[in-house]
Amino acid sequence: MKKIVAISTLIFALVFFTSCKESKPKTIVKPAERELPNIVFILSDDQAWTDYGFMGHKHIETPNIDKLANESLTFTRGYVPTSLCSPSLASIITGVYPRNHLVLGNDRVLPGDDKNGKPAWQSPWRDENYKSVIENFKKLNTLPKMLKEKGYLSFQTGKWWIGNHKNGGFDYGMTHGDAERGGRHGDYGLEIGRKGMDTLYSYIDLALKKKKPFFMWYAPFLPHSPHNPPDSLIQKYLPKAPSEYVARYWAMCEWFDQTCGDLMDYIDKKGQTENTLFVYVCDNGWVQNENDGKYNPISKRSPYDYGLRTPIMYKWKGKIASKRDTISLTSSLDMVPTVLGLLAMEQPKNLDGVDVLNEAAFKSRQTIFGEIYAHDFDTVENSLFYRMAITEPYKLILPDEVNKPNEKIQLYDIYKDPYEKINLAKEHPEIVVNLKNKIQKSWNTTTN
């Protein structure tokens, strides 16, 4: 009997310890042991937040970006901090406000500069004035520089305003930045998409050959003017548009979408889709005039949502759950900290955004901010036009008292009034004061 009891006890003990062992959770793979994802930033250029199929446009067809939106964590209430390409792109790559990276506009002027009736970019002193901007930028931490810690190869294609691609920490790139050869805002980089995708494909092939994870900056000169899309697309939109100018712009949006499809198809062809993080944003908005090729002043360079708002998407198949978020506010400044968070990398203290996948940090942020400067800029003080505070549901537009002395403060309920038609500043002075104080507090913590 004792033997039976002993044997029973032994069997029980074995079953107990075996079951305990099996009930433990599977070993969690440390971030450093995971396969590092490729990272692809897709950046539209001069496109309104409304001008996508998935955002409800009645005529513009963007099937590839629509598919990306459906497969991503997609924020439809994304914002860039400023509505002009050079400072906006600089904020995307650094994760800080223009007042901190000091790329305030597209061209730098100094007091006493004689334009002789020409815009700054056509003047001989433009490149000389911009050298100090480039030298300061080279000292900043950029995403390509940070990713070197993890062994990434980084590639630049498309728009790039800060001289040679190496100034941003890229290993390879299309932009030489030589002023003597027309290097103002992208030079050869501006050919990507418009003249094919072969250079981009060769960069991807190089990374795969070297067995390195890669960071790809795809910022084509699309749908940016000149609006000269393939004739087939123009003919498609002419019967639907109110004018040829609008038809051409709509066609450019679809042309850009086609190149995005080409890029994603190539990555899929190489078997890299499941190991690639795609991030989408537009640098600034655009509203096409019906009667000429120019943009409406309520869009690009303005403090309004037609200039600042953009969908922002994060897709990593199997790692980031797809979701359409139509409420939460996010910023292009969040792109760098979100990438670093996914790679379990240390977050530099000077970043102005948050990791959108860090639920506590994301939900605790109540306000995002923006700032608009002169296209031809000098210093922050001399060039500041507007500052903005954006919350749920209000947005405050605060004109600079010195540089915009005759303009009124504007307050909009951007959830009920997304096209900013009704100024509520007089009706809600307490909200104006509260948001003004938040703007000032944000500026008091500036790093420069």
Automatic annotation (TrEMBL):
Pfam families, per the entry: Sulfatase
Keyword terms: Calcium, Hydrolase, Metal-binding, Signal
Coiled-coil stretches: none
Domain (Sulfatase N-terminal) ranges: 37-343
Keyword Transport in annotation: no
Any GO MF annotation of the entry: metal ion binding
Stored Gene3D superfamilies: 3.30.1120.10, Alkaline Phosphatase, subunit A
Cofactor: Ca(2+)
Database matches in SUPFAM superfamilies: Alkaline phosphatase-like
Family (UniProt): Belongs to the sulfatase family.
Official protein name in the record: Sulfatase
